[in-house]
């Protein structure tokens, strides 16, 4: 399975503002993630297995944060809407990314969205979630309704 690495302009801008030491640490994290296909498979399975897995699933230093919507069907109580991942760096920074499987092309896609101060993670997470959900008519309402739950359950990245 191949690993495709993508990044947003925001991520590239954030990366360019870091010192050489911190820039190298980010590159090292990206390379470690891309090389550890076993860990990527576990992270993708954690997302696919939701809600059987906890909403906040940790594997090594990467945390899975999932947003869901309550469904009227009691057999399918929650529908997974969006999953993002975060990884903390030792200098008080957090990288927000997505990890997606593309079975047609037999690849895993890592998309890096931003690098933020860890204490600003929740705001960045909500901003990225809002952008990803904005085309869905209920996306903004979902984020507003779930905001407090997200804050309670996912504000602390371990």
What does this 3D model show about the protein?
The chain has 158 residues and is α+β, with helices and mostly antiparallel strands. It is 41% helix and 32% strand. Strands 1-6-5-4-3-2 form a six-stranded mixed beta sheet, with helices on both faces. Mean pLDDT is 73; it is low at 49-60, 76-80 and 150-158.
CATH topology: YaeB-like fold
Number of helices: 5
SSE run: EHHHEEEEEHH
Q: Mean of residue pLDDT?
A: 73
| CATH architecture type | 2-Layer Sandwich
Query: Structural class, please?
Result: alpha+beta
| Helical content band | 40-55%
What is the number of strand segments?
A: 6
Q: Report how far the terminal alpha carbons are from each other.
A: 28 Å
Cα shape: globular
CATH superfamily, by name, is RelE-like
Instruction: Indicate the radius of gyration in whole angstroms.
Output: 16 Å
**Poorly predicted sequence stretches spanning 5 or more consecutive residues:** 49-60, 76-80, 150-158
Topology of helices and strands:
Blueprint: E1 2-7, H1 9-16, H2 20-35, H3 37-48, E2 56-59, E3 62-70, E4 78-88, E5 93-102, E6 107-117, H4 121-133, H5 139-154
Parallel strand pairs: 1-6
Antiparallel strand pairs: 2-3, 3-4, 4-5, 5-6
Provide a concise account of the structure shown.
The protein is α+β, with helices and mostly antiparallel strands and 158 residues long. The protein has helices at residues 9-16, 20-35, 37-48, 121-133, 139-154, and strands spanning 2-7, 56-59, 62-70, 78-88, 93-102, 107-117. It has one domain (2-154): RelE-like (YaeB-like fold, 2-Layer Sandwich), CATH 3.30.2310.
């Amino acid at each position: 399975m191949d690993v495709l690495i993508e990044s947003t302009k925001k991520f590239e801008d954030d990366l360019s503002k870091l010192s050489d030491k911190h820039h190298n640490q980010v590159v090292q994290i990206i390379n470690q993630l891309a090389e550890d296909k076993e860990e990527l498979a576990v992270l993708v399975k954690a997302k696919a297995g939701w809600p059987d897995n906890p909403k906040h699933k940790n594997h090594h230093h990467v945390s899975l944060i999932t947003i869901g919507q309550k469904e009227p069907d009691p057999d399918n109580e929650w529908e997974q809407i969006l999953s993002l991942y975060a990884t903390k760096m030792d200098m008080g920074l957090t990288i927000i990314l997505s990890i997606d499987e593309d079975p047609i092309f037999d690849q895993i896609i890592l998309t890096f969205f931003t690098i933020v101060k860890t204490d600003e993670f929740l705001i960045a997470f909500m901003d990225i979630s809002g952008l990803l959900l904005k085309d869905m008519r209920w996306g903004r309402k979902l984020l507003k309704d779930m905001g407090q739950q997200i804050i309670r359950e996912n504000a602390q990245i371990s």
